Amino acid sequence: MKSNQTLKILFWHRKSKADSKGFAPIICRISIDGKDAEFSTSQKVHISEWNINSKKVIGSSHSKKINSALNHIESSLEINFTVLKTRFDNVTPIMLKNVFQNFPMENDKNELEQETPQLLELTNIHINDFAELVEKKLRSKETLKQWKATKKKIVEFLKFEFKANDIELAAIEYSFAQKFYKFLAVKRVPTLKDPAAMKQIKNLKQILNIAEANLWIAKNPIQKFKCGSEDPEINPLEIFEVERLWRKNISVERIAKVRDAFIFQCFTGFAYQDIYNLSKDHIVYVGPQNEPWLVKERGKTKVTEMVPILPIVAELIEKYKNDKYCKVYNRLIPVNSNFRYNTYLKELSDICNIGKPLNSHLARHPFADMMLNVLIFPLEDVSKMLGHKNIRTTQRYARVKKSRIGKKMNEARSILFDDNGELKMSLR
C-alpha cells in the first residue's frame, strides 16, 4: 500500500548553543504527520548571519557553501522519504533520520533512535563503558581515574571559554583543541606542564573518535592536532641516594614501612598498584637453580613483568612475612593508599635529606637506570622487566649515561687494541 504521508523539513539556528564568538549549530527538524525528529547538520554560522524567514545563511563568505550543504540534506531526505513510502505504510521521522544517517532503520521490536549526545554526555558514556571493563578486570582502575580527570578538565574549560555546561559535537572545530591546550597550559590554575596538557588533548581526540565511529559527527575536527611533546627529563635517584634511604635508621613505624615499600619498588621496578597487590602467588621459581622471580601481569598495560628477586627484595619479603596486614590480606609487603603513600614519601625525603620530592612512580626510574647503566642490561630486557608495551616508553625511564658508554668503550678498547694502544694483529 502506498503511503499518503507528507514530509516537512525545517532548518533552524540553535542560538542557545552559541559559542563565545556567537557561532551556533544549524539543526534540521523532520516532521511527518505531527511527529518530529531532529539532528545536527554539522554546519554552524554566526547568529547575525542566519535569516529567520528564509532559513538560509546570508552575509557570510561561506553562505553559498553552507546553503548548498543544507540543500543537499533536504533533497537527500526527500529522496529517502519517497523510497521509504514505497516500502512502508507508515514512515516515522526516526526511520527517515536513521536511514539518512546510515543507522539501522529499526530493530526486531522497536524503531531505533540514535540521539546525538553532547561532548560531556559522550564523555560520560565512555567513562561508564570503561568502568564496566574495569569491573571485569580488562582495564586499569588508574586509567579510569585519568578519564575522570579528563572529564573534570573539560568541564572547567567549557565554563571558562564558553560559559556553558556542555557543547554540541557539531560545534567543535580544530580551534577547540588549540584553546583547550592554552587553557590547560597557560590560563588554568594550577597550569599543567606540556606533556600533561597534551595528554588531555589526546584523550579528547579519542572521545571524538568515538563520536566519528558512531556517525555523530562526519569527521573528528581535531584529528590533525599533534599531541606530541618533548619528554620531560626525569633525574632518577642515584644509587648512593637509594642506599641512604635504605640504611637510614627510622624510628617512626609508618615512615619505615613506606621506606621499605619504596626500596622494594626501586629493586623490582613495579608500579604502585602492582606492589600493592603482590602476594606469594606471584613468586615463581625459575631454572635449574630454582631461582625465585616475581612474575605478574602489570595492571596498567596487561603486559607480564618478570624480575628476579634480588637479595634486598628477599630480605624485605622475609621481614614482613608475619606482618599482621600481610597475613590478613595475603600481601608480600604492607602498602598504604596511594595518597598516604605519597604523603609519607615526602616526609621520608626530608628525613633522609634527599633534596628532591619522592613519589611512588619515581621508584621505577632508579630501577630502570640501574638495570641499563649499572648492570648493562639491553634496553629490550629492561622494557620487559618494567612491563612496557614498547621500547619507546622504556626510553623515557632509562637514559643512556656516559658511564654505560664508558664501560662499553673500555670493553671495545680491550678487544680492538693491545696494552700499547696498537691495533691487534688479528683485526688487521
UniProtKB/TrEMBL annotation:
Reply yes or no: does the keyword DNA-binding apply: yes
> Which keywords does UniProt give here?
DNA recombination, DNA-binding
Q: Which SUPFAM superfamilies match?
A: DNA breaking-rejoining enzymes
Question: Can you give the residue ranges of the Tyr recombinase domain?
Answer: 230-410
Q: Which InterPro entries match?
A: Arm-DNA-bind_5, DNA_brk_join_enz, Integrase-like_cat_sf, Integrase_catalytic, Integrase_recombinase_N, SAM-like_dom, Tyrosine_recombinase_XerCD
Per the record, the GO terms for biological process are: DNA integration; DNA recombination
The yes or no answer to whether the keyword Transcription is present is no
Molecular function (GO) terms for this protein are:
DNA binding
Q: Which residues form a coiled coil?
A: none
Pfam families associated with the record:
Arm-DNA-bind_5, Phage_int_SAM_5, Phage_integrase
Give the family this protein belongs to, as stated in its UniProt record: Belongs to the 'phage' integrase family.
Designated name of the protein: Site-specific integrase
